[in-house]
Amino acid sequence: MKTKNLILVSIFAALTAIGAFIRIPIPYVPFTLQYLFCALAGMVLGSRLGALSQIVYVFIGLIGIPVFTEGGGPSYIFKPTFGYLIGFIVAAYVIGKITENIKTLTMQKAFFISIIGLIIVYTLGVVYLYEIYNLYLGQVKSIAWAIKYGALLCLGGDIIVCFAGSLLAIRIVPYFRKKSVLKSQSA
What we know:
6 helices, Arp2/3 complex 21 kDa subunit ARPC3
């Protein structure tokens, strides 16, 4: 892997960590800016490097560096919100894969791609939230409860994040394509 790609992966992992600390506390699942950097990682770096940046972020948190919204360490796997972190990895990959196949990234395309990634994050996050509460914590919660607190309460803010990320992406992605970041990682 090229040095510039290692640096970019590290930068997006760090940005995602910073996004964890820019948050609005709401019950059960805090609203953060992590998804902004996850989506941008996929669009800017492409599927492989975008997902790798999120894997690095999750790995750093799991080894004990407090980069998650509530700290870090291997026990974080048992936190109800860990599914969203898994979702970041999958979403960055899917967002990157779709972006790699688009010749010209428009605002509408970037927003639609961001929404697809958000659906992935919400799906994995809500399912994990539901399972952890019901199976591990022993607190009986309905799937409707998990959808309300795990997705619906954050939806408005996350749509704004998708819009802001799309505005950034349409300006940043052409620059990185010109510098061949996306092309070199596909080869």
